[in-house]
């Protein structure tokens, strides 16, 4: 998942939803999906996917609706074949320019946000299986939780005071070991805040000591997956 390096064409469905408001592509993922911000500042987002993976947005819409009863995630306003329209949440991505220069604050918010997610989403009531990239043969879980499924730094939102504000991109949400999220969240710190050692900060904010075996396992599973939504 990355920020587009140049303006991208705006699909007709996005223009229709925008109704004359400014539109800008803000994220491109590994599956060819593009997320557009509507309004300046954004009041909504429209995620678009190619036909071959359009069903993944149906999966995300269902997960957002379920998770929203318990945690702060975007409200689904409308959806259709290959597009998902959600309301904007207050806050900025943890990789916004405001936070990339304050990596310790960002790492702390990501850890606190994942702990809040894991503590709030009810495993017993979750209708979804494990995130798609985990596969079989995982170590016995340290603790089963409802995982974000793509716990990379950009998917945590932060308030202006540096605290956790919400989560986005929950298309692979499902039940798994807490380390399925923590292994990927800590790995993503090196991508987004290079030159520092922030893993300990994130894990301390979550409230857990490192588990080298489970971290290595889930990172390897993540790397084995050729592409994923976002």
What keyword list fits this structure?
about 20% strand, Phosphorylase Kinase, domain 1, magnesium, ATP-binding, globular, about 230 residues, Aminoglycoside 3'-phosphotransferase, Chain: A, domain 2, 5-stranded antiparallel sheet, 2 domains, 3-stranded antiparallel sheet, alpha+beta, Kan/Strep_kinase
Write the layout of secondary structure elements.
Layout: H1 12-18, E1 23-28, E2 34-38, E3 44-48, H2 55-67, E4 76-80, E5 83-87, E6 92-93, H3 97-100, H4 103-120, E7 144-147, E8 156-158, E9 164-167, E10 174-177, H5 178-192, H6 199-206, H7 212-224
Helix pairs in contact: 4-5, 4-6, 5-7
Could you say what the CATH architecture of the largest domain is? Alpha-Beta Complex
Which percent band covers the strand fraction? Answer: 15-25%
Radius of gyration computed on alpha carbons? 17 Å
Largest sheet: 5 strands, antiparallel
Tell me, what is the CATH class of the largest domain?
A: Alpha Beta
Oligomer: single chain
Q: Can you count the beta strands? A: 10
- CATH superfamily of the largest domain, please? Aminoglycoside phosphotransferase (APH), C-terminal lobe
Uncertain ranges? none
The chain-level structural class is alpha+beta
The helix-strand sequence is HEEEHEEEHHEEEEHHH
Into how many domains do the coordinates divide? 2
Distance between the termini: 6 Å
Helix content: 25-40%
- Mean pLDDT, to the nearest integer, reads 95
Strand order of the largest sheet: 1-2-3-5-4
GO molecular function: ATP binding; kinase activity; metal ion binding; phosphotransferase activity, alcohol group as acceptor
Binding site for Mg(2+): 155, 169
Domain Aminoglycoside phosphotransferase: 35-129, 137-218
Family: Belongs to the aminoglycoside phosphotransferase family.
């Amino acid at each position: 998942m990355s920020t587009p390096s140049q303006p991208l064409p705006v699909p007709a469905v996005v223009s229709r939803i925008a109704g004359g408001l400014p539109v800008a592509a803000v994220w491109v993922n590994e599956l060819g999906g593009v997320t557009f911000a509507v309004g300046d500042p954004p009041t909504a987002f429209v995620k678009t996917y190619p036909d071959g993976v359009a069903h993944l947005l149906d999966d995300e819409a269902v997960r957002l609706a379920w998770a929203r009863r318990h945690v702060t995630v975007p409200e689904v306003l409308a959806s259709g074949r290959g597009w998902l329209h959600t309301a904007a949440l207050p806050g900025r991505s943890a990789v916004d320019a405001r936070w990339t220069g304050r990596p310790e604050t960002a790492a702390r918010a990501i850890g606190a946000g994942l702990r809040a997610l894991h503590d709030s989403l009810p495993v017993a009531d979750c209708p979804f299986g494990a995130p798609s990239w985990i596969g079989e043969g995982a170590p016995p879980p340290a603790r089963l939780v409802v995982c974000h499924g793509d716990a990379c730094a950009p998917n945590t939102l932060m308030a202006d005071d540096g605290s956790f504000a919400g989560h986005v991109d929950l298309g692979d949400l499902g039940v798994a070991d807490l380390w399925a999220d923590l292994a990927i969240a800590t790995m993503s710190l090196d991508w987004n805040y290079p030159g520092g050692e922030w893993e300990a900060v994130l894990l301390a904010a979550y409230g857990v000591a490192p588990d080298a075996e489970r971290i290595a396992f889930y990172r390897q599973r993540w790397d084995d997956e050729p592409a994923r939504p976002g």
